[in-house]
Design brief:
Blueprint: H1 4-13, E1 18-23, H2 29-35, E2 47-52, E3 58-62, E4 75-79, H3 82-94, E5 101-104, H4 120-128, E6 132-135, H5 137-144, H6 149-179, H7 185-198, E7 201-202, E8 208-211, E9 239-248, E10 256-263, H8 274-299, H9 306-319, E11 361-364, E12 367-369, E13 377-379, E14 382-386, E15 391-393, E16 402-403
Parallel strand pairs: 1-5, 3-4, 5-6, 10-16
Antiparallel strand pairs: 1-2, 2-3, 7-9, 8-9, 9-10, 11-14, 12-13, 14-15
């Protein structure tokens, strides 16, 4: 059940007059999650739900879908035609006082697409009727991206299975090399998925299993549209990147999402090539700079911004002259979806100025791809959670390339 008192308290803290939720044809899963609405069901007509900073909420729904918000508290108002809708929206806004500031799922200039879910026309309509529209981004963080203790426990449970599967996958590669049978990217991918299923995890997308040049594509998928060489066999002398994400199969479970890199030793080799090790060490240093910034800021009682954490990691790689090969944000919000609605660690693809608050979880995953034309990429990825007493990395932290 939606906590109206908590929302109204947050609205007053942020000096907002109301939060206006809107949906049509299930465009806004964030609104549905925050309000506790089912993911399925009728939504062929527009509905609005206004939570004012003071007073009772109001449900504005179409007459032929009049019961769509009946599980929510507050007065119900009905409309049918567009003129009636315009009139009722005007009444809602006028009831908040002169020129109220209303939060909606909107991002100025489309700066944060993940939360910019209200169409431009509806924002224009609300403004025309006398309101100032503000972004609900920080409200979304507070009410959709903060984990419960049960979510954290499910994340840890998924992590135990995934970490074991990754290490088992490296051992499976060594076994194939020693015994002389062919193991391909797709074959290893299927092996990992089987282990995740055995561990009771929900695998909505298969893991990334990428060899050499394929590891230079951050979202490579074997057999996908960007697979230029078919299903590649894993051989001695190959770099191998594994990016694995999954969650427990229980409702409300949170994802675990990590990336590890290994190298298949040739006969007589005892370590990966020095050039690979140097690049991986740089990526680890960038990761650790981001971790340190989060931990220090939280320990001092502050709230780090996603963009600042990105800059901390990116500065390490840029100082080494390889900034142009780090081609994505440093990390993303983590929750019931692998790319959740909270702050991303990003001052590259977007500028995410939202704060990482207690209860938030996210990935930290810097990478360097094909420096100076070399056919490879490396990435390290960990998960971090901000608790009531500090920030923690929730799983093992890779320190060197796995020697397979």
């Amino acid at each position: 059940m939606v906590d109206i008192d908590a929302i109204q308290t947050e609205l007053r803290i942020r000096e907002l007059d109301a939060w206006l939720f809107f949906d049509h044809h299930h465009r806004d899963p964030i609104a549905r999650r925050i309000l506790g609405l089912p993911a399925a069901g009728l939504a062929t007509r527009r509905w609005f739900y206004l939570v004012p900073a003071e007073g009772k909420p109001v449900r504005l729904v179409h007459r032929i879908e009049a019961g769509v918000l009946d599980g929510l508290p507050g007065e119900r108002r009905l409309y049918a035609g567009w003129r009636e809708l315009d009139h009722e929206l005007r009444r809602l806004i006028a009831g908040l006082g002169p020129r109220p500031v209303i939060a909606m799922h909107y991002s100025p200039g489309g700066a944060l697409p993940a939360i910019s879910l209200v169409d431009a026309g509806t924002v224009e309509q609300v403004r025309t009727l006398g309101a100032e529209v503000a972004s609900a981004g920080d409200l979304i963080t507070r009410f959709d991206a903060v984990w419960t203790p049960e979510m954290l426990a499910s994340h840890r449970a998924a992590g135990a299975v995934i970490d074991a599967a990754i290490q088992g996958a490296f051992s499976e590669v060594r076994r194939a090399l020693d015994q002389g049978w062919t193991l391909t990217e797709a074959g290893l991918q299927a092996w990992i998925v089987g282990r995740l299923h055995q561990g009771g995890l929900l695998v909505e997308e298969p893991p990334i299993v990428a060899v050499n040049a394929h590891a230079g594509d951050p979202h490579f998928q074997t057999g996908g549209p960007r697979d230029d060489g078919g299903d590649t066999a894993i051989a001695a002398g190959d770099l191998l990147l594994l990016d694995v994400w999954a969650k427990c199969g229980t409702p409300g479970a949170a994802y675990y999402d990590v990336t590890w890199v290994g190298y298949c030793l040739r006969p007589g080799e005892t370590a990966p090539p020095a050039a690979l090790e140097r690049v991986f060490a740089l990526v680890c240093a960038a990761r650790d700079a981001a971790i340190d910034l989060v931990a220090a800021t939280v320990a001092a009682g502050g709230r780090p911004r996603g963009c600042d954490v990105d800059r901390a990691a990116r500065a390490v790689i840029e100082a080494a002259g390889l900034g142009r090969f780090f081609t994505h944000r440093t990390g993303h919000s983590l929750g019931v979806e692998v790319h959740a609605s909270g702050p991303n660690l990003d001052d590259f693809e977007t500028q995410d100025v939202r704060e990482l608050v207690p209860g938030c979880a996210f990935t930290i995953e810097p990478g360097i791809y094909a420096p100076q034309g070399a056919p490879f990429g490396v990435r390290t990825e960990i998960n971090m959670y901000i608790g009531a007493t500090g920030a923690e990395v929730t799983g093992p932290r890779q320190q060197e390339i796995v020697r397979i």
